[in-house]
Amino acid sequence: MALNNLLKKDLNFILFGGKGGVGKTTMAAASAIRFAQDQKTLIFTTDPAPSLADSFGQEIGNEPTAIKGVKNLFAMEIDAKKVLEEFKEEYGEDILDILQQGTYLADEETEEIFNLDIPGLDEVMGLKKITDFMESKEYQLYIVDTAPTGHTLRLLTLPELLDDWIKFLAKTRWRYHYIIERISGKEIIEKADEFLLEMKKTVKRVRNLLQDAQRTEFIVVTIPEAMGVRETEDLINDLQKFNIPSGHIIINNIFPNNDCQFCKARRKEQGKYIKEIKTLFPSFNISEVSLQTEEIREVKKLNQLTKILF
C-alpha cells in the first residue's frame, strides 16, 4: 500500500485528519503500531471526545501510557482544557501584569478579559504541549489523531491566532515600557517580558514544524461518499493554503467486490467517488481500505489493519 512510502522518510510528526466518523483514529492507531517497529513512537489525540483508549482497548490518560503488546508505542489523550488551566496557573499573573500595566482598565476588568473563553486557545495549549514533548526528544516519532475537520482547520490556523494574540500583548507591553523608561531613564526586563519572548518562540516552533516537509506529513482519511469527497477537497485546499505537507489519502470503508448484490451496488456507487478523488488529487498516494466485517478494536485486530495499510 501507499503508506509504505512514509517508512522511507525521516519523519518526526504525522497527523491524521478528516471528517468525523471516517475511521481516522483507527487508521492512526494501526499506523502507529507499524511505525513503532522501527522507532519509539508517541500517539496523541487532540479530539475533545477522544477515542484512542477505545481503539487500543485500554485506559489512556493525560500522560504517555505504554500500549500493551506493542513495543516502543505510547499513547496520550490530551485534555486541552486542563492544559489551558495549567497554563493560566503558570502564566496568569504575567498576562494580568501586561494588561494592567499597559491599559487604562481597572484590575477587575482585566481579570474579566483574562477569564474569557477565547476560541481555540485550549487547542493552542494542546499543540504547545505536543511541541514541548518534541523538544524533550524522548520519542522519535509523534503521531496526532486530530479532531474532526472543523477542529483540525482551527488547529492549523493556531500559529496565526496565537501570533496575533502575542502582538496585541506586546503592543500593550510597549506602552508600559515607554512610560517607565521616560521616568527612570533605563530599560527594564520583567517576568512578563520573558513570558512574551517564550510564547513568540513557541509560535515560531509550531509554525516551522507544521510546514516542514522533511519532518511532517498530514494524512487525510476519507470515505467514498459525496460529503467525504467535498470535505477532503476543502481540507486539502486548506493544508495547501497553510503550506502543510500532505501527499497521502486513505479511502476507508470500501465495499468488497464479491457476489453479494447489495455489495456490488454499493461498490459501484462508491467507484465514482473513488475515481473523483483520484482525478482531483493525481499527485497523492492513495490507499484503499475495504469495509471490515468486524469493528477494529484492540491490538490484535489493529495489527490486521496495519498489514493492510502497509
What does this entry show, briefly?
The chain is α/β, with parallel strands linked by helices. Helix content is 55%, strand content 14%. An eight-stranded mixed sheet has the order 3-4-2-5-1-6-7-8, with helices on both faces.
Tell me what the structure shows.
The protein is of the alpha/beta class and 310 residues long. It is 55% helix and 14% strand. The chain is built from eleven helices and eight strands. The longest helix has 36 residues, at 149-184. The protein is globular. The N and C termini lie close together (5 Å). The mean pLDDT is 82.
Our estimate of the beta-strand percent is: 5-15%
Major β-sheet profile: 8 strands, mixed
Rg, rounded, reads 23 Å
Sum up the overall morphology in one term.
globular
Helix content estimate: 55-70%
Number of helices: 11
Uncertain spans, ≥5 residues at pLDDT below 50?
none
Give the N-to-C terminal Cα separation.
5 Å
- How much is the average pLDDT? 82
* Sheet/helix structural class: alpha/beta
| Count of β-strands | 8
N-to-C order of helices and strands: HEHEHEEHHHEHHEHEHEH
Side by side, the strands of the main sheet go 3-4-2-5-1-6-7-8
Question: Can you lay out the helices and strands and say which pair or pack?
Answer:
Layout: H1 4-7, E1 13-17, H2 24-35, E2 41-45, H3 52-56, E3 65-66, E4 73-77, H4 80-102, H5 107-114, H6 121-136, E5 141-145, H7 149-184, H8 191-210, E6 216-222, H9 226-241, E7 248-254, H10 261-280, E8 285-290, H11 298-309
Parallel strand pairs: 1-5, 1-6, 2-4, 2-5, 6-7, 7-8
Antiparallel strand pairs: 3-4
